[in-house]
Structure formats: C-alpha cells, structure tokens
C-alpha cells in the first residue's frame, strides 16, 4: 500500500512538472495585442464572426469604434452575436450580412452588397473555416468542402473586394491559417478533374485537395501571393496561426461521430487545461489588424503576435503562383 501511495505521488509530481512546462511554453508566454488604436470611421468585415475567435475579434474591434460587418452563413446566430456585441460595447454599427463560403454565388452576392452599400473597407479578416466534414462532402460548386470553404471562398471574396480595399488604403487583408500546414510533406496536387467520357463532371473538381492541412497551407500561399501582387498599393496582406484554442469547434468535431461525443465531455476539462482560451486566440489577429509595424510586413506569417517562418512549402513562390492560377480558374476570376 505504501508503495502504491509513493508511486501515485511520484506520478502526480511528474504530471504537474510536465503541465508546468507546457503552461510556461505554450500558455503563459502568450503575447497580447498592445495597440491602443481607435477605429472610429473604419469598416471591418469578419467572416464567421458569430462565434469563437471571430466573435471575440469582432467584440474588440467594435469597442474601438469600428463599423463591424459580420459575414456569416447562420443569420440567426449572427444576429444574436451582433445584438450581444452592441450591448457590451455600446456600438450600434455592428451589422450582419449573409455569406456562405461553400457557394461562389453567395460570395458574389455578398460582395456586390458590400460594394453597393459601403463607402470603404479598411480591414478584411478571412476568419471563417471548417475543420471536419462528413465523408466526401462537396461545396455547391463541386469542390471538396474543406478546401472550397477555407480557400476558394475567401480567395473569391478578397478579389471581389480588392478595389474597395485599394480605395480605402491603407487597408489590410488578414487570413487565418494554422501551424497544422507544417504536417504536409508531399507536394500539393493542384490537378483539376474535368469530365468523364459521357461529359459528366466527376465528383470533386480537385479531389486531392480535401484535407484541412491543404486548406491551411493554401491560406498562407494565398496571403503571400496577394502581398506580392499588391506591393505597389496601400493594401497589406498577412496570414497567421492563432494558436490551438479551446472553442466550440471541438464539440462539433467530436459530435460528428456519435460514439465519440461522450469523450468530449470526459476530455473537455483536460483540453481546457492544455489549450489557450478564445481571448488569447484573438490576440495575433488583433495585432495584425491594428499594429502599425504590420503595414511594413506584408506577405509575412505571424504566430503569437510576431513574425514566424512557415514551412518551406508555404514559402514556395512558384507553388503560390500556380495556386493563384488554379484559384482563378476555379472561381471564375479573370487573372490580372
């Protein structure tokens, strides 16, 4: 019995030491956005701003006086979020527009509405995204859902709003990526599948681009290529890793497989201990949106409120150019 008690005590001590090391390396060292910038008279669009870090970001920017446009698929959740943000900040300039990134038609309709109704656009935050889908789910336009929503939708949206961003300069495009892009070891296959012998479009126009990892790599490549193409303008383009965050998305991921749902509630407290919270997860986005120094760092990738080097593949300019060409073809954008 004494041996078991000693053994248990030793295990507990080891666990506490490991957690202390993890806390110091990944949580306690998190930097916060130091900017005191006010955004009165500025307009911001945040995709997916009705929950998670998108909502937290919208709340902070609204407190700074910005006109905040929540671009969301679920209008009821977006209206609820807008109401809460207005109440907490006293800023009535929080509006909601429908945007479904899984539909290029919806993206075009949203962009047209913004162009018609807004005089300026100072910050575009490409925040929305999905991390898991059921089976071989496709977007309305035949793209694998993860890549279609996380990359093609934002690619089209940004390009359609570029003239407004240029007109409003200095302005910024901030694209949320993830360090998970580092897990990709083989080259990105951008081959498009056209039609079968009967002239029918095959399932999934870009069948190799179906993982979350690929979509997050594409986010960085897109932001970098956009920066190069806008080098002579007042539009800054950056991408970032917000951190590994404990958000509702984890519940959505686990609930996709019903038998795993109970594990979420069992492991939830452990995840809360190991991951950063939503407020910490917004800080790098806020830094990229507000800090004056970022305007001189267009094309860079940020982690924990500072410049970080992404994977070698994410820095491949030829791959970025090829992805841009493919994205123009996929979304119907005429390449300039």
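Sequence proposed for the structure above (336 residues):
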């Amino acid at each position: 019995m004494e041996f078991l008690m000693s053994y248990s005590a030793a295990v507990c001590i080891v666990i506490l030491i490991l957690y202390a090391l993890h806390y110091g390396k990944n949580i306690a060292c998190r930097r916060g956005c130091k900017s005191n910038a006010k955004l009165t008279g500025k307009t911001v669009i945040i995709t997916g701003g009705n929950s998670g870090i998108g909502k937290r970001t919208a709340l902070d920017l609204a407190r700074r006086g910005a006109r905040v446009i929540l671009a969301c698929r679920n209008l009821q959740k977006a209206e609820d979020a807008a109401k809460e943000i207005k109440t907490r900040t006293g800023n009535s300039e929080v509006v909601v527009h429908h945007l479904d990134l899984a539909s290029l038609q919806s993206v075009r309709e949203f962009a047209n509405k913004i162009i018609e109704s807004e005089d300026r656009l100072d910050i575009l935050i490409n925040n929305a995204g999905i991390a898991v889908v059921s089976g071989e789910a496709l977007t309305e336009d035949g793209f694998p859902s993860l890549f279609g929503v996380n990359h093609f939708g934002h690619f089209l949206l940004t390009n359609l709003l570029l003239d407004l961003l240029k007109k409003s300069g200095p302005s910024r495009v901030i694209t949320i990526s993830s360090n998970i892009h580092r897990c990709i070891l083989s080259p990105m296959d951008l081959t498009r599948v056209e039609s079968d012998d009967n002239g029918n479009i095959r399932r999934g126009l870009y069948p190799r681009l179906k993982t979350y990892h690929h979509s997050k790599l594409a986010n960085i490549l897109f932001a970098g290529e956009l920066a190069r193409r806008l080098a002579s303008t007042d539009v800054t383009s950056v991408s970032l890793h917000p951190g590994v965050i404990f958000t509702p998305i984890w519940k959505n991921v686990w609930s996709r497989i019903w038998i795993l749902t109970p594990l979420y509630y069992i492991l939830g407290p452990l995840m809360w201990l190991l991951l950063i919270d939503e407020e910490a997860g917004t800080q790098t986005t806020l830094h990229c949106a507000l800090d004056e120094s970022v305007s001189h760092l267009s094309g860079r990738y940020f982690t924990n409120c500072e410049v970080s080097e992404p994977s070698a593949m994410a820095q491949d300019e030829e791959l970025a150019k090829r992805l841009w060409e493919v994205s123009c073809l996929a979304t119907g954008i005429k390449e300039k």
